[in-house]
Design goal:
By secondary structure, the protein is an alpha/beta fold. It is built from eight helices and 13 strands.
Length: 342
């Protein structure tokens, strides 16, 4: 019996199914990518419908402690996204906890309405009377799209900041971004108020809080950038302010003083006191520098003087001792002269 071996089929064998070549696979994938890219570009060019603001307006209208009808507007963030801003004015002297309860309720009740939005910002403000009968304005911004933990932190910042007022603060503002400082401003006064933000508190859970306090002391503009983890109460600000030349007769000479414990500083991150006085002479700089002599520190001091022309002097205060900043090589003779007078 003769055995027969079946020969393998050839390309001409009827019914054979051809596999895709590597070139065909790559070509097909390339076409798919191109078509997908075209589709995405077309989709990106189709604008998203502007959101309905009625749910936000309806929610806050007539809801205590909102005083007047809310103003709601939209922001076209990009082709595919929108944001909503709601401006709310609360009743005068609204308790802080009532404002917080309104924010927390809105976060829960409007959850479905904020879905898909880039932001849903509430900008809330109200007038009131401070503990000494002074006019007081309070404001807070929150975003209902962001996590609940961030909203709660904003509310905690509001609680802490409003608790600082001892009768000289006229504005407390909590900005939207949590890494921005709490903004405080004071009523103009002739001396440093007791509630100047020099040793401010942290949040209840110990989280450090940053503050920016703006004050007008006589003819001097004073800005204090403070943080709850740096105590600035040892800075002799009263003595420094008293030593500054007055600018009442010549507004161009009104001193500008900044005390900054938040920024990086220039000397190993030490809190920095900047004193700028137009055309400050060495004789005028002497009592200013003397005001620091013996203070505890540590901090850095910068003085802007007229001679040498528009020169900056830098000093370090450590353990009650004033020295010239060894890294600063401008006006060295003048700095040595001033230190020699102390």
């Amino acid at each position: 019996m003769t055995s027969q071996t079946t020969s393998p089929p050839t390309d001409s064998t009827p019914g054979k199914r051809h596999g895709l070549t590597r070139r065909q696979v790559i070509g097909g994938l390339s076409s798919a990518v191109v078509l997908t890219g075209i589709g995405v570009r077309i989709w990106m060019r189709i604008p998203t419908t502007e959101p309905d603001t009625a749910p936000f307006a309806d929610y806050f209208t007539g809801r205590a402690p909102v005083m007047s009808e809310p103003t709601v507007d939209t922001e076209h963030v990009s082709t595919k996204s929108w944001g909503v801003r709601t401006f709310l004015t609360l009743e005068e002297n609204t308790p802080v906890e009532d404002a917080i309860a309104l924010i927390q309720s809105a976060y829960t009740d409007l959850a479905a309405n904020v879905e898909g939005l880039a932001h849903a910002t509430l900008l809330i403000g109200w007038n009131g009377t401070g503990p000494a009968g002074e006019d007081l304005y309070t404001a807070i911004d929150v975003d209902l799209v962001r996590p609940r933990s961030e909203l709660d932190f904003q509310c905690e910042r509001l609680r802490v900041a409003t608790g600082l007022n001892q009768g000289a603060i006229d504005t407390v503002r909590i900005p939207l971004e949590t890494d921005e400082a709490i903004a405080i401003s004071h009523i103009e006064a002739d001396s440093l108020p007791a509630d100047a933000v020099l040793a401010p508190p942290a949040a209840a859970d110990g989280t450090a809080l940053a503050y920016e306090d703006r004050l007008g002391i006589g003819s001097t503009s004073l800005t204090i950038s403070a943080t709850s983890d740096v105590d600035l109460s040892g800075v002799p600000l009263d003595a420094v302010l008293a030593a500054l030349p007055g600018g009442a007769e010549d507004p161009s000479r009104e001193p500008i003083v900044t005390l900054d414990a938040v920024g990086p500083g220039y000397a190993d991150g030490l809190p920095t006191i900047d004193i700028y006085e137009q055309d400050l002479t060495l004789d005028e700089a002497e009592p200013i520098l003397r005001a620091f002599d013996g203070a505890e520190g540590p901090h850095a001091i910068r003085l802007q003087v007229a001679s040498p022309p528009d020169s900056e002097m830098r000093f370090l205060l450590t353990d009650g001792t004033l020295t010239a900043d060894p890294s600063w090589h401008t006006a060295e003779e003048e700095m040595a002269d001033l230190l020699g007078r102390l």
